[in-house]
Specification:
Layout lengths: L2 H9 L9 E4 L7 H8 L3 E6 L7 H12 L3 E5 L8 H14 L3 E6 L1 H16 L8 E2 L9 E5 L11 E6 L4 E6 L8 E4 L9 H19 L6 H23 L4 H21 L3 H13 L3 H16 L4 H10 L9 H18 L16 H11 L11 H11 L1
Parallel strand pairs: 1-9, 2-3, 2-4, 4-6, 5-8, 6-9
Antiparallel strand pairs: 7-8
Helix pairs in contact: 4-5, 6-7, 6-8, 6-10, 7-8, 9-10, 9-13, 10-12, 10-14, 11-12, 13-14
């Protein structure tokens, strides 16, 4: 990036903030008893991914809680896209227990339910009341998050997403300072049972977070540094983790990359990948990570013209040799590397492969325009542009 571009970036008003304490390393979950003691919490609601309830990892955590003398209840009725119904059920359980803290063990859906329960527990009402940006002011119950997928970064991000079953849409509840977990435990042992498809889809979700945050119109030097390192970690380690979920080094690198991206994208905003994937996922019931992965290659190619200098840095972060290349060719190297990464991880090449229909493109494009991602996406995108992107993706 040129000195002039750096100067323009520095002159723009921006900020960077992360309130979460990070505990990381193999076996770091064993610090839970001390962390609970720091909060003086005697009654704990556990939100746990239903696939993990019977695992040895969770059994070990429960034994630690018993030894610490903590009373607890487990809520695991959590869908892949968690609903307001699940939040209400978990909240009833939490209130009956008199929870003083919420402990989440699982992926983004599990952590988002925990966040929602923590918010409503102290602010009252329903989670619907807090849709939007900073719609609550009372600090939620303390939340400790142990992510078991390396993807959403929910443990450190200022947002949670809950499906409104009545309106048939996803609510985003955002608060940069009050919504992240108080403590996040990044332990590679928690990823040992993750299925390979989940590892691939969630890992590409984390990659997209870092990629879109890095090229966002709202990026700043702090988020750039965080996102570039996230891109390095994720692109180098997603393959090894998918190949072997017990690869502790790759697992920790992926957890770290996911968290780094999560620390940044809530402050920079995201772009067309998330915009398109949001509506594709909702209409065709496709998991969030896969939706992002499907939309990533075509959007990466479309946005390259908007900031080729940053694309060169992305190529370099992904291990491409760009020395001696023109800026245009260096940017193209990033596009090709992203396409190759998706192919290597078995992502379908076409949106049609997961059921997207040509006749639905105008509707999807209109929804994308209305969503307002042009405030973040580096290239201004019209409805016709979105129609072209969806058509190219088919």
């Amino acid at each position: 990036m040129s000195q002039k571009a750096h100067l323009v970036m520095l002159l723009a008003q921006s900020s960077y903030f992360c309130p979460t304490r990070i505990v990381m390393g193999s076996g770091s979950y064993k610090q839970l008893d001390g962390i609970l003691a720091d909060f003086a919490a005697r009654k704990v609601l556990l939100t746990i991914d239903p696939a993990l309830v019977e695992t040895a990892f969770v059994a070990d955590v429960l034994e630690m809680l018993r030894k610490a003398g903590a009373g607890f209840e487990i809520f695991s009725n959590i869908e892949p896209d968690p609903s307001d119904t699940s939040v209400a059920e978990a909240l009833d359980l939490s209130r009956a227990l008199g929870s003083e803290l919420v402990l989440a063990i699982g992926g983004g859906s599990t952590i988002d339910v925990a966040k929602a329960v923590a918010i409503v527990s102290t602010n009252g009402g329903r989670i619907h009341d807090y849709e939007g940006i900073e719609k609550f002011s009372v600090p939620p119950l303390p939340l400790i998050a142990v992510p078991t997928t390396a993807g959403t970064g929910s443990e450190v991000s200022g947002s949670c997403v809950i499906s409104d079953t009545q309106r048939g849409l996803k609510m985003s509840i955002r608060h940069a300072s009050l919504n992240p977990a108080r403590v996040a435990i990044l332990d590679p042992l928690a990823l040992r049972t993750v299925p390979t498809t989940v590892a691939a889809h969630s890992g590409l979700d984390a990659f997209v977070h870092a990629f879109e945050s890095y090229i966002s119109r709202n990026a700043n030097p702090f988020t750039d540094a965080v996102n570039l390192h996230a891109l390095r970690l994720i692109s180098a380690n997603i393959g090894p983790l998918v190949a072997n979920p017990e690869n502790a080094e790759a697992a920790l690198a992926m957890l770290t990359g996911s968290a780094l991206a999560g620390m940044a994208f809530g402050q920079t905003g995201l772009g067309n990948v998330h915009c398109m994937a949001r509506f594709v996922g909702a209409k065709y019931h496709i998991p969030h990570g896969l939706s992002n992965a499907l939309c990533l290659p075509v959007v990466a190619r479309f946005n390259a013209i908007a900031n080729p200098a940053k694309y060169v840095e992305i190529a370099r972060a992904m291990g491409c040799h760009v020395e001696g290349l023109s800026q245009t060719d260096g940017a193209q190297a990033a596009v090709v590397a992203i396409q190759d990464l998706c192919a290597e991880l078995g992502i379908p090449r076409h949106l049609a492969d997961v059921g997207v229909k040509k006749e639905h493109i105008p509707e999807l494009a209109e929804l994308c325009v209305r969503a307002g991602y042009n405030r973040w996406n580096p290239r201004t995108t019209s409805k016709r542009d979105f129609e072209r992107l969806f058509a190219e993706g088919l």
